[in-house]
Amino acid sequence: xxxxxxxxxxxxxxxxxxxxxxxxxxxxxxxxxxELPAGxxxxxxxxxxxxxxxxxxxVSEAWRSLTRAGAIQTRGRxxxxxxxxxxxxxxxxxxxxxxxxxxxxxDLSTGVPDHDLLPDLTDALKRTGDGRLTSSYLxxxxxxxLETVLRNRWPYPPDGLTVVDGALDALDRVIDVVxxxxxxxxxxxxxxxxxxxxxxxxxxxxxxxxxxxxxxLPDRLHGALSVHPAVAVFLQPRAHNPTGVxxxxxxxxxxxxxxxxxxxxxxxxxxHAGDIATAPPVSLGRHLPERTVHVASFSKSHxxxxxxAAIGGPGSIxxxxxxxxxxxxGWSSRLLQGVLVDLLTDPAxxxxxxxxxxxxxxxxxxxxxxxxxxxxxxxxxxxxxxxxAVDDQQIAMxxxxxxxxAVAPGGPFCVTPIxxxxxxxxxxxxxxxxxxxxxxxxxxAILDSRGSxxxxxxxxxxxx
Length: 464
Hints:
alpha/beta, Aspartate Aminotransferase, domain 1, 3 domains, 16 strands, DNA-binding, aminotransferase, WH_DNA-bd_sf, transcription regulation, PLP-dependent aminotransferase family protein
């Protein structure tokens, strides 16, 4: 049992950054490492502040951050105690992405693919047979024929490979292996809200790095890693959600060069768009294979209900994910894995996915061109989403809701403010009526001096 004086020395000795965030991160790391065990009573705010030479307000803010993350619990006059991190659902960014308006005519907030552009599963299900693909609960988690197909498609030779239940399941399981409470983690800014939620649940300190039209900025990544040594860097190599940016090979090489100086950071890539992305496959694993985890999802390209994504990368990480799953679901449906093998190898299914890729590109281009004609700043280089700058997020969403149009607010995507309000529009669901939709979006995006919509004023602000 710790004495309070010992706890004070342990805490203050671990703090090298005396900001509120730095104190919270240091205490979080101590909790994660077991040096502050569950049930331990923390020193008072005033004692910690006095020992660190900071104001009690700074320590109180750190304690509030730890409380929000569920790492500690305050019991009134009894003091603050170490507990198990628990994050209430209502605080999740993911829950803020939907819109509550019931009278939707066109819901462009979802980020899901167009069902009519997905490959037909009928023949694949027939060819898969009667589903006798499991002979033992200890069979390998990946069908051998699927593993062969996946390895042939992988952007670099992975040491290990397994299959899980979709991209978010993959990210969740990789985070569980590589990230601990208080660890610094770097992401793109903006980033996918569920990823930020997953990192919040483990109490990570998230650092957002700005992007340009080619992805994360290498110099800003270097600066972030120099100040905040990180255990992981999360990237979306293609069709970045929400901006649509894809990383070209030259930028991937530049980012890998930066990361070569920081060998403790694992690279985690979420290739969520898969085969509907226009850009060719790209991965930092071509430069850093020993520390790059690549996630390949098939939800947007072949069907969300397949619930399949592959994880490939260092054997130590992939094996840890597969071994932990043995104590839960064990494996992803081998019947669905068989269907995926068929879809990835059948010429008709391959042609259907290629047609979907071209259709999404055409839809993005058509809507983006019309918005630019109306003076709206937006990006939609790849994938199914469009990232549109607006003068006021809330006013824009209310204005669009009045037209029966739902979009996702930009706020939950932003780690820190990026200079302008935005909304995300699932352009991939729009197959016609581009001019009318562009009129409504432009009117909502740009406000005149009286605060009402105006269609044709140039809007110079970007998302970087």
